[in-house]
Amino acid sequence: MQSVGIEAMVCENIFDFRPQQKFDLVIATHILEHLPKERLIEILAHFKNDILKEG
């Protein structure tokens, strides 16, 4: 991603990830199907809050 000018951030633990900035896009590949169902809505809400309004 960085080779084409896109800044990327890698997260080791999705439950502890609390960025100080907003993003244009959040990509979570092969992640959501492994989350406990009771935490899925919480994580999706964090994704929504982490995306810029124009994103």
Rg calculated over all Cα atoms = 12 Å
Main beta sheet = none
Task: Tell the overall outline.
Answer: globular
Q: Helix proportion of residues, in percent?
A: 25-40%
Low-pLDDT residue intervals, each spanning 5 or more residues: none
Let me know the number of strands: 0
Mean pLDDT: 84
Write the H/E string, N to C: H
By DSSP (H or I, 4+ residues per run), the number of helices equals 1
Q: N- to C-terminal separation?
A: 17 Å
Fraction in beta strands: under 5%
**Category by helix and strand content:** mainly alpha
Reconstruct the topology from this structure.
Elements: H1 37-50
What does this structure look like?
InterPro entries: SAM-dependent_MTases_sf. The chain has one helix and no strands. The protein is globular, with a radius of gyration of 12 Å. It has one helix at residues 37-50. By secondary structure, it is mainly alpha-helical. It is 25% helix and 0% strand.
